Amino acid sequence: MAFNELRAIATFARAAELGSLRQAALAQAITPQAASQALAQLETHLGIRLFHRTTRKLSLTEEGRQFLHEAQPGLTTLQRALHGARRGREEIAGPLRIVAPRATMLQVLWPVLEEFTRLHPRVTPDVQLEDRIGNWVEDRVDVGFRAGTPPSEGVIARRLLPMQLLVCATPGYVARHGAPATIDDLATHRCSGFRQANTGKLVPWEFRVGDDIVSRAVPAAFSTNDVDLEARAVLSGEFVGQLLGVTAAPLVRAGRLVPLLTAHVSDHLGLFLYYGSRVAQPARARAFIDLAIERLADNPQLFLQPHELAPPRARTRTRRR
Questions:
Q1: 264 & 208 share domain
Q2: What is the pLDDT of residues 130-148, one digit of tens each?
Q3: Which DSSP string do the residues of 234-294 spell out, in sequence order?
Protein backbone atom coordinates (compact mmCIF):
# COMPACT_ATOMS: atom_id res chain seq x y z
CA MET A 1 0.00 0.00 0.00
CA ALA A 2 1.30 3.46 -0.90
CA PHE A 3 2.25 5.70 2.02
CA ASN A 4 -0.17 8.61 2.43
CA GLU A 5 1.74 11.10 4.58
CA LEU A 6 -1.17 13.47 5.11
CA ARG A 7 -3.57 10.74 6.25
CA ALA A 8 -0.90 9.21 8.48
CA ILE A 9 -0.18 12.55 10.19
CA ALA A 10 -3.92 13.21 10.63
CA THR A 11 -4.36 9.74 12.14
CA PHE A 12 -1.45 10.36 14.49
CA ALA A 13 -2.88 13.71 15.64
CA ARG A 14 -6.35 12.21 16.22
CA ALA A 15 -4.88 9.29 18.17
CA ALA A 16 -2.94 11.74 20.35
CA GLU A 17 -6.08 13.83 20.90
CA LEU A 18 -8.40 10.89 21.70
CA GLY A 19 -5.85 8.67 23.43
CA SER A 20 -6.93 5.70 21.32
CA LEU A 21 -5.96 4.45 17.89
CA ARG A 22 -9.35 2.73 17.54
CA GLN A 23 -11.21 5.97 18.28
CA ALA A 24 -8.97 7.81 15.80
CA ALA A 25 -9.87 5.24 13.15
CA LEU A 26 -13.60 5.75 13.80
CA ALA A 27 -13.20 9.53 13.62
CA GLN A 28 -11.55 9.25 10.21
CA ALA A 29 -13.91 6.56 8.89
CA ILE A 30 -11.10 4.02 8.36
CA THR A 31 -10.52 0.58 9.84
CA PRO A 32 -8.40 0.11 12.96
CA GLN A 33 -6.03 -1.98 10.85
CA ALA A 34 -5.61 0.88 8.37
CA ALA A 35 -5.00 3.35 11.22
CA SER A 36 -2.39 1.06 12.79
CA GLN A 37 -0.64 0.58 9.46
CA ALA A 38 -0.64 4.34 8.76
CA LEU A 39 0.92 5.06 12.14
CA ALA A 40 3.53 2.31 11.68
CA GLN A 41 4.42 3.69 8.24
CA LEU A 42 4.75 7.20 9.65
CA GLU A 43 7.09 6.03 12.42
CA THR A 44 9.17 4.12 9.89
CA HIS A 45 9.25 7.12 7.57
CA LEU A 46 10.36 9.47 10.38
CA GLY A 47 12.67 6.94 12.02
CA ILE A 48 11.27 7.64 15.49
CA ARG A 49 8.74 6.11 17.85
CA LEU A 50 5.70 8.37 18.35
CA PHE A 51 3.70 6.47 20.97
CA HIS A 52 4.29 4.26 23.96
CA ARG A 53 1.76 1.46 23.45
CA THR A 54 0.22 -1.06 25.84
CA THR A 55 -2.94 -3.11 25.38
CA ARG A 56 -4.91 -0.45 27.30
CA LYS A 57 -2.95 2.75 27.01
CA LEU A 58 -1.51 5.02 24.31
CA SER A 59 0.81 7.86 25.30
CA LEU A 60 3.12 10.15 23.36
CA THR A 61 6.88 9.73 23.47
CA GLU A 62 8.97 12.88 23.82
CA GLU A 63 9.66 12.75 20.09
CA GLY A 64 5.95 12.25 19.44
CA ARG A 65 5.06 15.25 21.62
CA GLN A 66 7.54 17.45 19.72
CA PHE A 67 6.29 16.24 16.33
CA LEU A 68 2.66 16.93 17.32
CA HIS A 69 3.60 20.43 18.52
CA GLU A 70 5.15 21.24 15.13
CA ALA A 71 2.54 19.48 12.97
CA GLN A 72 -0.62 20.72 14.72
CA PRO A 73 -0.65 24.32 13.33
CA GLY A 74 -0.32 23.04 9.77
CA LEU A 75 -3.13 20.52 10.26
CA THR A 76 -5.38 23.21 11.74
CA THR A 77 -4.73 25.49 8.76
CA LEU A 78 -5.43 22.66 6.32
CA GLN A 79 -8.67 21.71 8.09
CA ARG A 80 -9.80 25.35 7.99
CA ALA A 81 -9.05 25.48 4.26
CA LEU A 82 -10.98 22.27 3.63
CA HIS A 83 -13.95 23.54 5.60
CA GLY A 84 -13.90 26.84 3.71
CA ALA A 85 -13.76 25.05 0.35
CA ARG A 86 -16.74 22.86 1.25
CA ARG A 87 -18.72 25.86 2.49
CA GLY A 88 -17.89 27.81 -0.67
CA ARG A 89 -19.00 24.91 -2.83
CA GLU A 90 -22.44 24.85 -1.21
CA GLU A 91 -22.92 28.61 -0.98
CA ILE A 92 -24.67 30.35 -3.89
CA ALA A 93 -22.27 33.25 -4.02
CA GLY A 94 -19.08 34.31 -5.76
CA PRO A 95 -17.94 34.66 -9.39
CA LEU A 96 -19.63 32.77 -12.22
CA ARG A 97 -17.88 32.78 -15.61
CA ILE A 98 -20.26 32.28 -18.53
CA VAL A 99 -19.32 32.08 -22.21
CA ALA A 100 -21.95 32.41 -24.94
CA PRO A 101 -22.20 33.32 -28.64
CA ARG A 102 -23.33 36.85 -29.45
CA ALA A 103 -26.07 35.54 -31.73
CA THR A 104 -28.11 34.08 -28.87
CA MET A 105 -27.28 36.20 -25.83
CA LEU A 106 -29.94 38.91 -25.99
CA GLN A 107 -32.91 36.90 -27.24
CA VAL A 108 -32.27 33.67 -25.37
CA LEU A 109 -29.84 33.98 -22.49
CA TRP A 110 -30.35 37.46 -21.09
CA PRO A 111 -33.82 36.71 -19.58
CA VAL A 112 -32.31 33.70 -17.78
CA LEU A 113 -29.33 35.69 -16.54
CA GLU A 114 -31.57 38.56 -15.41
CA GLU A 115 -33.76 36.18 -13.38
CA PHE A 116 -30.73 34.42 -11.92
CA THR A 117 -29.11 37.65 -10.69
CA ARG A 118 -32.41 38.64 -9.09
CA LEU A 119 -32.69 35.27 -7.31
CA HIS A 120 -29.02 35.13 -6.27
CA PRO A 121 -27.68 38.68 -5.79
CA ARG A 122 -24.46 37.42 -4.14
CA VAL A 123 -23.32 35.81 -7.40
CA THR A 124 -21.18 38.01 -9.67
CA PRO A 125 -21.56 36.84 -13.30
CA ASP A 126 -18.69 37.43 -15.71
CA VAL A 127 -20.20 36.99 -19.18
CA GLN A 128 -17.98 36.72 -22.24
CA LEU A 129 -19.67 36.91 -25.65
CA GLU A 130 -17.58 35.06 -28.19
CA ASP A 131 -18.44 33.25 -31.39
CA ARG A 132 -15.10 31.42 -31.41
CA ILE A 133 -14.81 27.94 -29.91
CA GLY A 134 -12.31 28.27 -27.08
CA ASN A 135 -10.82 25.90 -24.54
CA TRP A 136 -13.25 25.76 -21.63
CA VAL A 137 -10.52 24.73 -19.15
CA GLU A 138 -7.97 27.36 -20.18
CA ASP A 139 -10.69 30.02 -20.31
CA ARG A 140 -11.88 29.05 -16.80
CA VAL A 141 -15.47 28.64 -17.95
CA ASP A 142 -18.07 27.57 -15.38
CA VAL A 143 -21.00 27.37 -17.82
CA GLY A 144 -20.92 27.71 -21.59
CA PHE A 145 -23.41 27.91 -24.43
CA ARG A 146 -22.78 27.02 -28.03
CA ALA A 147 -24.97 27.30 -31.11
CA GLY A 148 -24.40 24.70 -33.80
CA THR A 149 -22.99 21.25 -33.14
CA PRO A 150 -22.16 19.72 -29.73
CA PRO A 151 -18.96 20.92 -28.01
CA SER A 152 -15.89 18.71 -28.16
CA GLU A 153 -15.23 15.86 -25.76
CA GLY A 154 -14.19 16.70 -22.22
CA VAL A 155 -17.38 18.52 -21.23
CA ILE A 156 -20.95 17.53 -20.47
CA ALA A 157 -23.28 18.93 -23.16
CA ARG A 158 -27.06 19.29 -23.03
CA ARG A 159 -29.04 20.17 -26.16
CA LEU A 160 -31.54 22.82 -25.14
CA LEU A 161 -33.47 23.56 -28.33
CA PRO A 162 -33.28 23.45 -32.13
CA MET A 163 -31.70 26.42 -33.89
CA GLN A 164 -33.86 26.88 -36.96
CA LEU A 165 -32.57 28.66 -40.04
CA LEU A 166 -35.52 30.62 -41.41
CA VAL A 167 -35.66 32.37 -44.76
CA CYS A 168 -37.86 35.40 -44.28
CA ALA A 169 -38.77 38.87 -45.49
CA THR A 170 -41.19 41.62 -44.52
CA PRO A 171 -44.79 41.54 -45.79
CA GLY A 172 -43.95 44.72 -47.71
CA TYR A 173 -41.05 43.07 -49.53
CA VAL A 174 -43.24 40.10 -50.49
CA ALA A 175 -45.98 42.44 -51.72
CA ARG A 176 -43.53 44.31 -53.96
CA HIS A 177 -41.27 41.49 -55.17
CA GLY A 178 -43.17 38.27 -54.54
CA ALA A 179 -41.99 35.26 -52.58
CA PRO A 180 -39.43 32.73 -53.87
CA ALA A 181 -41.17 29.45 -54.70
CA THR A 182 -37.95 27.41 -54.83
CA ILE A 183 -34.44 27.64 -53.48
CA ASP A 184 -33.19 28.51 -56.96
CA ASP A 185 -35.55 31.51 -57.04
CA LEU A 186 -33.40 33.21 -54.40
CA ALA A 187 -30.97 34.15 -57.18
CA THR A 188 -33.55 36.67 -58.42
CA HIS A 189 -33.99 38.33 -55.02
CA ARG A 190 -31.95 40.82 -53.01
CA CYS A 191 -30.58 38.71 -50.16
CA SER A 192 -28.60 39.49 -47.03
CA GLY A 193 -25.50 37.56 -46.02
CA PHE A 194 -23.69 36.83 -42.78
CA ARG A 195 -19.89 37.08 -42.80
CA GLN A 196 -17.78 34.96 -40.43
CA ALA A 197 -15.80 37.31 -38.22
CA ASN A 198 -12.67 35.12 -38.18
CA THR A 199 -12.49 34.39 -41.93
CA GLY A 200 -14.50 37.19 -43.56
CA LYS A 201 -16.25 34.59 -45.74
CA LEU A 202 -19.98 34.60 -46.36
CA VAL A 203 -21.75 31.76 -44.58
CA PRO A 204 -23.67 29.56 -47.05
CA TRP A 205 -27.41 29.24 -46.52
CA GLU A 206 -28.54 25.79 -45.44
CA PHE A 207 -31.77 24.02 -46.39
CA ARG A 208 -33.47 20.75 -45.66
CA VAL A 209 -34.17 18.88 -48.89
CA GLY A 210 -35.83 15.58 -48.09
CA ASP A 211 -33.65 13.91 -45.49
CA ASP A 212 -30.55 15.88 -46.44
CA ILE A 213 -29.11 19.25 -45.46
CA VAL A 214 -27.77 21.14 -48.48
CA SER A 215 -25.70 24.32 -48.56
CA ARG A 216 -26.09 27.07 -51.15
CA ALA A 217 -23.87 30.07 -51.74
CA VAL A 218 -26.48 32.84 -52.04
CA PRO A 219 -25.22 36.12 -53.57
CA ALA A 220 -25.48 38.91 -51.00
CA ALA A 221 -26.82 42.37 -51.78
CA PHE A 222 -26.00 43.27 -48.18
CA SER A 223 -23.58 41.56 -45.80
CA THR A 224 -22.47 41.96 -42.19
CA ASN A 225 -20.81 40.00 -39.39
CA ASP A 226 -23.46 41.01 -36.86
CA VAL A 227 -26.71 39.02 -36.53
CA ASP A 228 -28.65 41.94 -35.08
CA LEU A 229 -27.66 44.23 -37.94
CA GLU A 230 -28.63 41.57 -40.48
CA ALA A 231 -32.04 41.27 -38.82
CA ARG A 232 -32.45 45.06 -39.05
CA ALA A 233 -31.56 44.93 -42.75
CA VAL A 234 -34.24 42.32 -43.40
CA LEU A 235 -36.75 44.32 -41.33
CA SER A 236 -36.05 47.35 -43.50
CA GLY A 237 -38.03 45.62 -46.24
CA GLU A 238 -35.16 45.71 -48.73
CA PHE A 239 -33.80 42.17 -48.40
CA VAL A 240 -34.60 38.49 -47.96
CA GLY A 241 -32.53 36.93 -45.18
CA GLN A 242 -31.88 33.60 -43.53
CA LEU A 243 -32.07 34.31 -39.80
CA LEU A 244 -31.78 32.18 -36.69
CA GLY A 245 -35.11 31.02 -35.37
CA VAL A 246 -34.53 32.64 -31.97
CA THR A 247 -34.29 35.99 -33.78
CA ALA A 248 -36.99 35.45 -36.39
CA ALA A 249 -39.68 33.63 -34.38
CA PRO A 250 -40.92 36.62 -32.33
CA LEU A 251 -40.83 38.84 -35.42
CA VAL A 252 -42.89 36.33 -37.40
CA ARG A 253 -45.44 36.07 -34.58
CA ALA A 254 -45.64 39.86 -34.44
CA GLY A 255 -46.40 39.98 -38.18
CA ARG A 256 -43.22 41.90 -38.97
CA LEU A 257 -41.65 39.05 -40.97
CA VAL A 258 -43.06 36.30 -43.19
CA PRO A 259 -41.37 32.86 -43.27
CA LEU A 260 -40.48 31.74 -46.80
CA LEU A 261 -39.51 28.37 -48.29
CA THR A 262 -40.92 26.76 -45.15
CA ALA A 263 -40.66 23.25 -46.60
CA HIS A 264 -36.88 23.67 -46.48
CA VAL A 265 -36.40 25.02 -42.94
CA SER A 266 -33.21 23.56 -41.46
CA ASP A 267 -33.23 22.64 -37.78
CA HIS A 268 -30.28 20.24 -37.59
CA LEU A 269 -28.30 22.67 -35.45
CA GLY A 270 -28.98 23.24 -31.78
CA LEU A 271 -28.26 25.43 -28.80
CA PHE A 272 -26.11 23.49 -26.32
CA LEU A 273 -25.32 24.14 -22.69
CA TYR A 274 -22.01 22.68 -21.54
CA TYR A 275 -20.02 22.40 -18.32
CA GLY A 276 -17.43 20.24 -16.61
CA SER A 277 -18.09 17.56 -14.02
CA ARG A 278 -21.28 18.36 -12.13
CA VAL A 279 -19.92 16.64 -9.02
CA ALA A 280 -17.16 19.22 -8.51
CA GLN A 281 -19.21 22.29 -9.39
CA PRO A 282 -19.93 25.05 -6.89
CA ALA A 283 -23.58 25.58 -5.97
CA ARG A 284 -23.76 28.84 -7.95
CA ALA A 285 -22.94 27.01 -11.20
CA ARG A 286 -25.37 24.18 -10.47
CA ALA A 287 -28.13 26.69 -9.71
CA PHE A 288 -27.55 28.55 -12.98
CA ILE A 289 -27.47 25.33 -15.01
CA ASP A 290 -30.75 24.17 -13.45
CA LEU A 291 -32.44 27.51 -14.17
CA ALA A 292 -31.17 27.60 -17.77
CA ILE A 293 -32.50 24.10 -18.43
CA GLU A 294 -35.84 24.92 -16.78
CA ARG A 295 -36.34 28.09 -18.82
CA LEU A 296 -34.83 27.10 -22.18
CA ALA A 297 -35.13 23.36 -22.78
CA ASP A 298 -37.52 22.97 -25.74
CA ASN A 299 -39.11 26.35 -24.99
CA PRO A 300 -41.71 26.74 -27.78
CA GLN A 301 -41.33 30.52 -27.74
CA LEU A 302 -37.82 30.25 -29.16
CA PHE A 303 -38.61 28.47 -32.43
CA LEU A 304 -41.55 28.22 -34.81
CA GLN A 305 -43.92 25.29 -34.46
CA PRO A 306 -45.01 23.21 -37.49
CA HIS A 307 -48.40 24.96 -37.73
CA GLU A 308 -46.61 28.34 -37.82
CA LEU A 309 -44.52 27.16 -40.76
CA ALA A 310 -47.53 25.96 -42.77
CA PRO A 311 -48.29 27.98 -45.93
CA PRO A 312 -50.90 30.74 -45.36
CA ARG A 313 -53.67 28.84 -47.21
CA ALA A 314 -53.07 25.71 -45.10
CA ARG A 315 -53.24 27.80 -41.93
CA THR A 316 -56.52 29.34 -43.13
CA ARG A 317 -58.05 25.92 -43.84
CA THR A 318 -56.94 24.70 -40.39
CA ARG A 319 -58.61 27.65 -38.66
CA ARG A 320 -61.88 27.15 -40.61
CA ARG A 321 -62.07 23.55 -39.56
A1: yes
A2: 766 555 555 678 898 988 8
A3: HHTTS-BEEEEHHHHHHHHHTTS-EEESGGG-B---EEEEEES-STT--HHHHHHHHHHHH
